[in-house]
């Protein structure tokens, strides 16, 4: 991947983690400052966007490297499930159900946008640059793009499935991974910015965001009724609960994934042989179960704040995987990816306009497809930390549909490349 420096300046993950935490602290201190200049700045630039964007700049400059660091793996496998437990522990599950069918509709609209966006983007770009689709066999462009479809409808497990089914060359697959990361994260940046101006977008859609507002208010009122100054025992209990459920998630994943992979291989189409799938499902389920118990009162000592910190560390590690300069390596491939995501966005906006869906459902429905369980809760929490489970639940649905929808998209792209 293209970097200004051949090797990163900081390769020690302890140093990189320190840099990321200093960045996060600086962002949140300034975003909560009484200084009018900072207040004006954060009126236009969401703090969450900076948590993602600043590490990406450091990666592009070659100061740190998302490829050489293990921090994303640690954050996604340990901190993400722990954060989901703490963010769901005080959730009003009935309130989520009462959000209605629009969340599902927007998720499915996002899936359709990916399925038809791939072949349409391929046709459009090949019209201007036909040599791009001239490859044959493992070098056929549609084979490489099939892995992007898998990633954008479900996640890494679905991407791997498409790689195994359509067998693109190693070089082509490597280029597609770069396209996937850069384009998806550019769109993520737009969604994080949109979360900060969601009221204006909702007004344009004539959308009724009152169910979301009511859920937020209900959760905030509950938090106010149980708030307390946390003791060491409280904080230790919160962290223990989060990582105990995470441990259960890993234990369950270590058992379920190989069991299904070896005895029920047909279920791999639903990503049920993916360890990450089971970690996320078990952690989310554990948090939801605890929300019906006395553990819910841990929110009064700041459970969601600790969960949000874990999630922001994940945001920083995601940003650190993005190198904006890599777009110059294969500009034609990135052009296809950009056309593809634009078609996805257009369909989302058309459907949202037709059903008057608030921007929250657009953002979460899109990321449940394109980002999966790693970033869907991030986008949801940009609206409010308590809404993170909505993103997770839709992302799980993405796992189930991912392989089938990505396979259909790949077949359509195969025929589109023949036009």
UniProtKB/TrEMBL annotation:
It comes from Fodinibius halophilus. It holds the Pfam family DUF819. InterPro entries: DUF819 (IPR008537). This is DUF819 family protein. Signal peptide: none annotated. Keywords: Membrane, Transmembrane, Transmembrane helix. The chain crosses the membrane at residues 6-29, 41-65, 71-91, 103-129, 172-193, 232-256, 276-295, 307-327, 333-352, 359-380, 386-413.
């Amino acid at each position: 991947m293209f970097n200004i420096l051949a090797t990163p300046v900081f390769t020690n993950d302890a140093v990189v983690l320190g840099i990321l935490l200093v960045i996060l602290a600086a962002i949140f201190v300034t975003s909560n400052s009484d200084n009018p200049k900072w207040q004006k700045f954060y009126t236009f630039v969401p703090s969450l966007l900076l948590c993602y964007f600043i590490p990406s700049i450091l990666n592009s400059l070659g100061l740190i490297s998302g490829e050489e660091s293990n921090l994303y793996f640690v954050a996604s496998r340990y901190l993400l499930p722990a954060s989901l437990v703490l963010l769901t522990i005080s959730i009003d599950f009935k309130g989520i159900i009462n959000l209605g069918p629009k969340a599902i509709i927007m998720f499915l609209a996002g899936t359709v946008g990916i399925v038809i966006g791939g072949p349409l983007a391929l046709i459009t770009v090949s019209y201007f640059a036909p040599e791009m689709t001239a490859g044959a066999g493992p070098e056929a462009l549609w084979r490489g793009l099939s892995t992007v479809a898998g990633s954008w409808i479900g996640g890494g497990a679905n991407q791997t499935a498409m790689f195994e089914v359509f067998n693109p060359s190693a070089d082509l697959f490597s280029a597609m991974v770069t396209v996937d990361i850069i384009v998806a994260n550019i769109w993520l940046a737009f969604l994080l910015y949109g979360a900060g101006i969601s009221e204006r977008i909702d007004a344009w859609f004539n959308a009724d965001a009152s169910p979301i507002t009511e859920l937020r208010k209900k959760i905030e009122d509950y938090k106010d009724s149980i708030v307390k100054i946390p003791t060491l025992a409280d904080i230790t209990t919160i962290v223990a609960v989060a990582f105990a459920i995470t441990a259960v998630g890993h234990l369950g994943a270590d058992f379920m994934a190989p069991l299904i992979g070896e005895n029920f291989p047909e279920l791999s189409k639903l990503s049920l042989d993916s360890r990450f799938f089971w970690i996320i499902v078990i952690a989310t389920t554990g948090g939801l179960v605890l929300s019906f118990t006395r553990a819910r009162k841990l929110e009064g000592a700041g459970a969601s704040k600790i969960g949000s910190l874990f999630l922001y560390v994940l945001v920083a590690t995601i940003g650190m995987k993005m190198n904006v300069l890599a777009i110059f390596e294969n500009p034609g491939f990135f052009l296809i990816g950009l056309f593809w995501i634009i078609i996805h966005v257009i369909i989302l906006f058309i459907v949202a306009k037709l059903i008057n869906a608030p921007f929250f459902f657009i953002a979460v429905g899109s990321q449940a497809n394109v980002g999966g369980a790693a970033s869907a809760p991030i986008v949801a929490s940009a609206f409010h930390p308590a809404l993170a489970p909505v993103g997770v639940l839709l992302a799980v649905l993405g796992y189930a549909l991912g392989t089938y929808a990505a396979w259909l998209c790949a077949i359509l792209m195969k025929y589109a490349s023949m036009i």
